[in-house]
Amino acid sequence: MRVVTGGIAHETSTFTTVETDWQSYKERFYLRGEEILDTFRGTNTPIGGYIDGAKTHGFELIPTIFAEAHPSGPTPRNIFDAILGEILNGITEAGSIDGVLFGLHGSMVVGDLEKPDGIDDPEGHILAAIREVVGPEVPILAQLDIHSNVSPQMVEAADVLIGRETYPEIDMAERSRECADVLMSIVNDGKRPTMALHQIPMIWGMHQVTAHPPMREAIEELHRIEGQPGVICGSIATCYYLADVPNMGASVYIVTDNDETLAQTYADQLGKWIFERRETWHGPSPTTCEALKTAETEGNFPVIFADRNDNTGGGSPGDSTGMLKCFIEAGLQDACILYIVDPEAIAACHHAGVGATLTIDVGAKSTPAQGQPIRMTAEVIALSDGNFRYDGPMLAGLSSTMGPSAHIKQDGVHVLLVTQREQPFDTAFSRTLGLEPRQMRYIGVKSSAHFRAGFESWAGAIHVVYEPSVHTLSDLTFKRLGRKLYPFDNI
């Protein structure tokens, strides 16, 4: 049995100032053929799970192209066409195949949507192009991020879509192994998957962490439906609200064994269950200084402040300074911020060397929407090339880099400066620069929730905060939605 794999994965903000180019993909992943298997074997990643599935079921996994960039602005059309063209050529050259296991994100945008070359549903475009190459009989299965904007075209072109069920997304390999299991049930057991979509007229707020209520109850309801006779699998997509596209919004998609009516009934049922609870998915939006007052009153340390607006995992520049300003003005001791993107400040630190004290302007170099640079007189504690390996659970075993980096300290505030935009999934990178976050009393992270995978187990308290950024929701203008969505509209 021969199965092709590959992927194009990008979470696209149509509001960020961070552009996407060829270097964006090369800095993250642009892998061909066996290089894909060598990179992801034994890792908690979508391709890592497909490799596991191939080993378990004994089929040959034929790699094509895997391309992924850090979240940023739309991918130019010429780059998208080149990547997709390589993938389609790879599938054609593979010859006779029995299935497709693909890795997508679910919230990609391509080109300028004001021009004819723009594509507001690239995943649908990709799946349709693959279908045209492999024909109607070859099963196409793909894993999606939980933050997907799922379209009717995606559901029509694929046989099965399976979305991640955890946030932080620690089940990447597990969901891919599920895809492989379902593929085998199609090939060996004659299952005939039928998929139905229910698009919910709402965006999901901050209450998405699947280990806690109310999101935990939504996943439990999904599992209840998955346990019903005739249901193969199902998924909830909480949406990626920073994409101004017609399919932006939460959704449910259910797969049954050759029963379209049953699939649609369960999708509609779960979609209605979620929408009826729409107010519970949203919560308050304090600043760091407001949350700091609460944290001091509660006294549960170490306390983590997570800046949702400047989450590089959502496409933000990663150099907003609201949190840093609060930490310094409050005179905090044993405090750290992970991470601020600032190549200019890093260059000055590398020139000065470890042990030097220098005065530099930190952060807010990308755009005034990120605040104002903070002048710091700081000691250079450590420097590095940024290379490290995640120790999980999210992305466990995967090698990565932050690019040239620096650990600086002013009074009691430590700051890790990085070149590559990435959120802290665990503490592995911090430790390479001599900073152990567990020993800090106040920890600031540029992340919405993925940091919880490596931080929540030992945190005394966690506060999600909102600092000025290119992604401040109240400042965004949506033009292409084409429908009403809660809470933008009073539905």
Provide keyphrases for this structure:
491 residues; alpha/beta; 2 domains; six-stranded mixed beta sheet; globular
Unreliable stretches (pLDDT < 50, length at least 5) are none
Content of β-strand: 15-25%
Structural class: alpha/beta
Helix content: 25-40%
End-to-end Cα distance? 50 Å
- Biggest sheet, in brief? 8 strands, mixed
Number of strands: 19
Quick structural gist:
The protein is 30% helix and 23% strand. With 491 residues, it is α/β, with parallel strands linked by helices. The model has no long low-confidence stretch (mean pLDDT 97).
What do you see in this structure?
With 491 residues, this protein is α/β, with parallel strands linked by helices. 30% of the residues lie in helices and 23% in strands. Helix 6 links the parallel strand 5 and strand 6 (160-163). 55% of the residues are buried.
SSE inventory with pairings:
Layout: E1 2-9, H1 22-28, E2 29-32, H2 34-40, H3 46-57, E3 60-68, H4 77-93, E4 99-104, H5 122-134, E5 140-144, H6 152-157, E6 160-163, H7 172-189, E7 193-199, H8 215-226, E8 231-237, E9 251-257, H9 260-276, H10 288-298, E10 303-307, H11 322-329, E11 335-341, H12 343-352, E12 357-362, E13 374-384, E14 387-389, E15 399-401, E16 405-410, E17 413-418, H13 428-432, E18 442-445, H14 452-455, E19 461-465
